[in-house]
């Protein structure tokens, strides 16, 4: 079994959302993230079409959860599954709440491309890393998109 971490995010009203960062663009260090958001909206995922600055709003749908692929799954699957870059923009008139549940490897786990994934002779893109080192690296600096994944690249 892995480890679970639950965050409670509160985004107060910001009269001029352009002047603040809700959550800067990043991918989660999890395997999967299960996210409950209220009805306000403000979560954007980065699409892979166009000029690369293609942000798609994730509209809140009553009774639904958002499931995001995280970096650990990208590494374990040797990039078959790609973690999703996302960000949150604050709201000008309403407070927002979200509750992400991060489903993670254990801090003591060593993660790398699974043998099952490489059995056809596929070249590993990632090395074996101690998961707690990966997480430490993520929190060491301000978010910068998917840059953290480079820490695990060969
Ligand atoms: O508030 C959200 O919708 C997402 C928050 C988030 O990306 C995170 O906590 O990692
Ligand atoms: Fe996130």
From TrEMBL:
<dbReference type="InterPro" id="IPR027443">
    <property type="entry name" value="IPNS-like_sf"/>
</dbReference>
<dbReference type="InterPro" id="IPR044861">
    <property type="entry name" value="IPNS-like_FE2OG_OXY"/>
</dbReference>
<dbReference type="InterPro" id="IPR005123">
    <property type="entry name" value="Oxoglu/Fe-dep_dioxygenase_dom"/>
</dbReference>
<protein>
    <recommendedName>
        <fullName>Fe2OG dioxygenase domain-containing protein</fullName>
    </recommendedName>
</protein>
<dbReference type="InterPro" id="IPR050231">
    <property type="entry name" value="Iron_ascorbate_oxido_reductase"/>
</dbReference>
<feature type="domain" description="Fe2OG dioxygenase">
    <location>
        <begin position="1"/>
        <end position="105"/>
    </location>
</feature>
<dbReference type="Pfam" id="PF03171">
    <property type="entry name" value="2OG-FeII_Oxy"/>
</dbReference>
């Amino acid at each position: 079994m892995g480890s679970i971490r639950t965050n409670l995010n509160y985004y107060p009203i910001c009269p001029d959302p352009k002047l603040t960062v809700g959550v800067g663009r990043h991918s989660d260090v999890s395997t999967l993230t299960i996210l409950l958001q209220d009805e306000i909206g403000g979560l954007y995922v980065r699409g892979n079409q166009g000029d690369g600055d293609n942000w798609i709003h994730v509209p809140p749908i009553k009774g639904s959860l958002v499931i995001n692929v995280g970096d650990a799954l990208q590494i374990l699957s040797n990039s078959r599954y790609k973690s999703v870059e996302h960000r949150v923009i604050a709201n000008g008139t309403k407070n927002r709440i979200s509750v992400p549940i991060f489903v993670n490897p254990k801090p003591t786990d060593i993660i790398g491309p699974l043998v099952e994934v490489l059995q056809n002779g596929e070249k590993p893109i990632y090395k074996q890393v101690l998961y707690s080192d990966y997480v430490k690296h993520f929190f060491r600096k301000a978010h910068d998109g998917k840059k953290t994944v480079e820490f695990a690249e060969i």
